[in-house]
Amino acid sequence: MTFPASAEPFADVQRVLAVFAHPDDVDFGAGATVARWVAEGLEVAYVIITRGDAGGFDNTPREEMPALREAEQRAAAAVLGAKQVTFLDGYHDGVLTPSIELRHDITREIRRFRPDRILTSSPLRRWERIAGPSHPDHLAAGEATTCAIYPDSRNPFTFPDLAAEGLEPWIVREVWYQAGPAPDHHVDVTDYVDAKLSALAAHVTQTSHQDVRPFLIDRMTQAAAAAGAPEGRLVESFSVFRTA
Ligand SMILES: [Zn+2]
Questions:
Q1: 176 phi, psi to nearest 5 deg
Q2: Distance 24 CA to ligand 1 centre (A)
Q3: Which of 56, 120, 172, 177 is most buried when burial is the number of CB atoms within 10 A of its CB?
Q4: Which tens digit of pLDDT belongs to each residue from 88-109?
Q5: Is residue 20 helix, strand or coil?
Q6: Model's pTM, two decimal places?
Q7: Is pLDDT of 132 > 90?
Q8: CA–CA gap between residue 66 and residue 86 (Å, rounded)
């Protein structure tokens, strides 16, 4: 199973909401693109579903991990210029499912922020790379977010408690999927790679045990080759769809 060809992104997008399962997901997959969007004047906010309590490679006591990872994600967002970071409560790293509760909580954040575009994880698995991008939490985040885009956030009769909170229905016009099969919308991020690396350095519990630069440069170089970009350019790639 794969995606159809990407649509041309809307030219008048102003607000972007990134919805991801774990602290660091957006930075690894789209950090340079977020930096470029901010430089181009877009307002970017994040919703992070868990606090990454099953992550990390060091001897940090597990009970300290959620607060550490929340702080790391807030620092990384500040590096890239993402203005708001919201953490959902009640969800745990490693056991995420695309539940009605998760759809409800993402719908609340969509109706609050009212984004034109959502960036999230691919709900489609990459069978050639089972480990990493196709972590089940990522698939669950992508599926729940897609359901929140359509129909939940635009249907006034879904989740009446949100209407009672004063949160009106909202139509998200465009969705970008990260780390899915055969991404074909390519963003030249050559000028924003340093910002991405700085954001990733803020995720100390995740990245301090290794030099992530060679791996990331290699991945963005391969994406540039797939995009047919000139030698020396670096690219992040996505699948982009309109939701109407
Ligand atoms: Zn992740």
A1: -115, 125
A2: 7
A3: 120
A4: 999 999 999 999 999 999 999 9
A5: strand
A6: 0.97
A7: no
A8: 14
User: 132 C-alpha vs ligand 1 centroid, how far in Å?
Assistant: 8
Q: Please name the residues in contact with 230: beta carbons below 8 A apart, sequence gap of 6 or more.
A: none
Ligand 1 centre to CA of 166 (Å) is 32
Residue in the structure block whose two tokens are 């919201």: 86
Of 206 and 140, the one with more pLDDT:
140
How many Å apart are CA 112 and CA 92, to the nearest integer?
Answer: 23
- Please report the pLDDT score of residue 61 as a whole number: 85
Q: What are 166-198's pLDDT values in tens digits?
A: 999 999 999 999 999 999 999 999 999 999 999
Q: What is the CA radius of gyration of the chain?
A: 17
Q: Which token pair is 76?
A: 């990384």
| Mean of pLDDT values over 140-164 | 97
* φ, ψ at 100 (rounded to 5°): -60, -35
Measured N-to-C along each axis, helices 193-201 and 25-39 cross at an angle, to the nearest 10 degrees, of 140
Is the N-terminal amide bond of 151 cis, ω within 30° of 0? yes
CA distances in angstroms from 61 to 54, 86, 189, 201, 216, listed in the order given: 11, 24, 36, 20, 28
What is the per-residue pLDDT for 1? 78
- For residue 163, what are its two tokens? 């209407």
